[in-house]
């Protein structure tokens, strides 16, 4: 089963120094400039936590009844493995 990815051509204005650095980096990684920029942008938008994660983070920040982790027991457990 193949997945077809629809691509749309677009253009951006970039600082010449930034463009040069991106081109150098793409060459170093043996990638096209387009592939490098697309993967960097995809990583950027993928790093944003989803709603479930954001809710869990908020709950952890607001909770006053958080348990304390006993690291000595954890270390003993790890050492026993």
Q: Level of helix content?
A: 55-70%
Distance between the termini: 42 Å
SS field, number of helical segments: 4
**Quick one: how many beta strands?**
0
Global structural class: mainly alpha
**Biggest sheet: strands, sense, closure?**
none
Topology pattern, helix = H, strand = E: HHHH
What proportion strand?
under 5%
List the helices and strands and how they pair.
Elements: H1 16-28, H2 33-46, H3 51-62, H4 71-80
Helix pairs in contact: 1-2
Descriptive account of the structure:
The chain contains 4 helices and no strands. With 81 residues, it is mainly alpha-helical. It starts with 15 loop residues before the first helix and ends with a helix.
For this entry, give a set of tags.
single chain; 81 residues; mainly alpha; elongated
How would you concisely characterize the structure shown here?
The chain is an all-alpha fold. The protein contains four helices and no strands.
């Amino acid at each position: 089963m193949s997945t077809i990815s629809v691509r749309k051509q677009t253009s951006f204005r970039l600082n010449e120094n930034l463009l040069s650095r991106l081109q150098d980096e793409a060459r170093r990684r043996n990638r096209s400039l387009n592939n490098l920029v697309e993967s960097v942008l995809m990583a950027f938008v993928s790093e944003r936590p989803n709603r479930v994660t954001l809710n869990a983070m908020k709950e952890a920040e607001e909770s006053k009844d958080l348990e304390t982790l006993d690291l000595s027991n954890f270390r003993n457990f790890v050492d026993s493995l």
